[in-house]
């Protein structure tokens, strides 16, 4: 859908190039929701894709997922075989009500920031003890657990660019059994991980 009130699209490549936030601004990620309904209050989009954050990287602290990582990129990620909770990644990527056309461009960050009740990336990253890195307007960063980031239906702590970092808990040392379930209408989705010591939740 055309967003007729939008007159400008900013393409910052670095944090220093971010324009000063004004009323009528919105971050643009994959645009799958943004362009799916009228946004008459918007006049400018700030496109996050030119930051060119690496979609996925594995380091000493675990897996880092860029906010701009698409669901398709995450689904195609070849996890180390010893990551016991790895199957959750594909299960959650394929839990969208949307078709593959959507998840080719929909991003992980966009899903968290939408904060819909059946947000598969919310369930996934919360279950894996994900941590959001939030850029604050004063130039500093804030770390917030995904579980604390989403507060309610379409409400979250902050709508600013962030990267989501998953901690080591998805590695075999700490992560054991997993369970994945959706309601028949997919209006609710839940994932659980359990410690090796045996809790069954
Ligand atoms: C047919 C269809 C089916 C869908 N099915 C589902 C579903 O099953 N479950 C579900 O949860 N959603 C669903 N959606 C909604 C939406 O497509 C997804 O939530 C998707 O993951 C949003 O990601 P995006 O990158 O396209 O976000 P965008 O559309 O680009 O942005 C969504 C919102 O988040 C903000 N935003 C995006 N990225 C950031 C960021 N990094 N920092 C701060 N703010 C940001 C934007 O400003 C905007 O307000 C569906 C949409 C369609 C059209």
Report on this structure.
The relative contact order is 0.16. Strand 6 (130-135) and strand 7 form a beta hairpin. Helix 2 runs antiparallel to helix 5. The chain contains 6 helices and 12 strands. It has a 5-stranded antiparallel beta sheet with strand order 4-5-10-6-7. It has a 3-stranded parallel beta sheet with strand order 1-3-2, with no helix packed on it. Strands 8-9 form a two-stranded antiparallel ribbon. By secondary structure, it is an alpha+beta fold. The chain has helices at residues 71-75, 87-93, 100-103, 108-114, 120-127, 146-149, and strands spanning 8-10, 25-28, 44-47, 56-59, 62-65, 130-135, 141-145, 150-152, 155-156, 162-166, 178-182, 189-193. The protein has a single domain, classed as Uridine Diphospho-n-acetylenolpyruvylglucosamine Reductase, domain 3 (2-Layer Sandwich). The protein is 17% helix and 25% strand. Bound molecules: flavin-adenine dinucleotide. Residues 26-34, 36, 48, 67, 96-98, 102, 106-107, 109-111, 113-114, 116, 118-119, 159-162 line the site of flavin-adenine dinucleotide.
């Amino acid at each position: 859908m055309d967003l007729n009130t939008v007159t400008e699209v900013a393409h910052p490549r670095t944090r220093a190039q971010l324009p000063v936030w004004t009323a009528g601004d919105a971050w643009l990620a994959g645009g799958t929701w943004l362009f799916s309904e009228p946004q008459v209050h918007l006049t400018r989009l700030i496109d996050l894709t030119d930051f060119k954050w690496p979609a996925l990287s594995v380091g000493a602290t675990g897996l880092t997922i860029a906010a701009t990582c698409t669901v398709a990129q995450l689904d195609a990620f070849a996890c180390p075989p010893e990551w016991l909770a790895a199957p959750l990644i594909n299960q959650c990527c394929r839990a969208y009500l949307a078709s593959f056309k959507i998840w080719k461009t929909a991003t992980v960050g966009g899903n968290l920031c939408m904060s819909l009740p059946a947000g598969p990336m919310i369930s996934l990253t919360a279950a894996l003890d994900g941590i959001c890195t939030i850029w604050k307007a004063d130039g500093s960063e804030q770390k917030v657990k995904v579980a604390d980031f989403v507060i309610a239906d379409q409400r979250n702590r902050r709508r600013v660019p962030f990267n989501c970092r998953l901690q080591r808990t998805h590695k075999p040392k700490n992560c054991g059994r997993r369970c994945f379930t959706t309601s028949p209408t997919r209006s609710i989705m839940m994932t659980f991980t359990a410690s090796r010591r045996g809790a069954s939740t």
